[in-house]
Amino acid sequence: MQLTDICFGWRLLWGLSVVLAGCAAGPEVIRLSDAPPGGGPYGKILVVSLFESFDMRRYLETELVSQLSEQGIEAVASTSMMDSKTPVNRRTFVDMVDKTGADSVLLTQPVDLETTAKKTTPASPQASYNFRPTYYYNVFSVELTEYAEPPGIRLEHDVTLLVELIGVDTREPVWAIQTRSRVVWKADMERDYSAYIDEAKTITREMAKDGVIAAD
Fold this sequence. Notes:
Layout: E1 23-24, E2 28-31, E3 44-49, H1 54-70, E4 74-77, H2 90-100, E5 104-120, E6 126-133, E7 140-147, E8 152-167, E9 173-186, H3 194-209
Parallel strand pairs: 3-4, 3-5
Antiparallel strand pairs: 1-9, 2-9, 5-8, 6-7, 8-9
Helix pairs in contact: 1-3
C-alpha cells in the first residue's frame, strides 16, 4: 500500500489530545463526493487513526472496530498490534495489512480544529452556618462561611476529521467523508468517552449507507 501520500496531520494544536474527550453532539457529515468512486463492498478492514495521542487513537479505533463488528465486518485496530513506541509510518501499516489480510484500510485523521476558551464561575457556592446563643434572650450569634470554587476553564472545540476507506487492490481512497463535531470540555470534568462512540457510529452508518461495507 502507498500510505506516503496520506497527510499525517498531527500538529494542529495540543488540544487535539482532548478534543474527543469532552461531551459532544453527534458529528455532522460532510460528503466529499456525491457517491463513492467504486470499489467494495469490503469485509476485512484495518482501522487506522492518526492522532498525536496514542490513547486517543486507541479509543477511536476500538469503537470503530466494535461498530464494524456489529455489522458483520472483520475489523482490526492498528493499535492492537502496536504500542506508543511503534513507528507510525508506511512500513508499519503495510506489514499490518499483510499480517491481517485486510482488503481495505479505514483511515481517520484531523484536518481542522478551532478552539475557544471561556472562564467559568460557579453560580451557587456552598455555605455553612454556625448559630450560637448569647446572654440575651432570643438573640443568637451567626457565623456564615461560604465556600466558592475557583474559576474554571471551558473549552469549545470545532473539530473536523477526514475519514477515508483505502482499497488495498487499488491503493487509492475508494470512499471519503469529513465529520465535524462541536466538543465542550472543562478542565475539571472527567473525560466523556461517549464522543468516541458517537463518532464511530456515524462513520459506520455512513459506510453502510453508501455500500462500501457489506453490512448485515
